[in-house]
Predict the structure.
Amino acid sequence: MKSKEKKIIIACFSICLIIIIVLFCYFYMVKNLKIGNNKSSQEVVENILNMKSYDAVIEVEVKSNKNQNKYVIKQIYDGENNNIQEVIEPSNIKGVKITKTENQLKLENTKLNLVSIFDDYQYLSENHLDLNSFINEYKQNDNSKYVETQNEIIMEINSKIEKSLYIDRKTGEPTKLEIEDTNKRTAVYILYREVNVNSK
């Protein structure tokens, strides 16, 4: 009788211990999912709109009626007044760097060791390849909106020239940017090879 009681007590204790471990693991996983990348679509969009800085390596395809050009560009954006873009490919213009600091623009060709500096170049802030330019336009355009798919959030600017920024739901980072011409054909296609967005 005593050995039976001991076995029952040990069995009950084992079951209780298993239940406690299972519950602990469940709540630990739920907590981590909430803290991790389980953000709502609105939170992901707000994170992009409140971007403080970013760095990226992008593939750019520019199409016109006559030709099509491809580039690989490294971008560093650190606030409104510090913006660097450097061409990585094609090789014939590799090393060409555009640096914008406040209202000053510096053009460099590291291969030829040439530097040109221009003051009061404000219009260059409207650079269509720059993620910050898209964000500013999205904020100012009354017809801006975002739509959702299973894997992506698409931020859209509806104007004469339509622009769509695709964001990965899991990572919250941009994956591509498409810019259409007035005939609704893709004029600029940007693929984000690497991107790191830092929000405020």
User: Anything to note?
Assistant: Confidence is low (pLDDT under 50) at residues 30-36, 121-125. DSSP finds three helices and eleven strands in the chain.
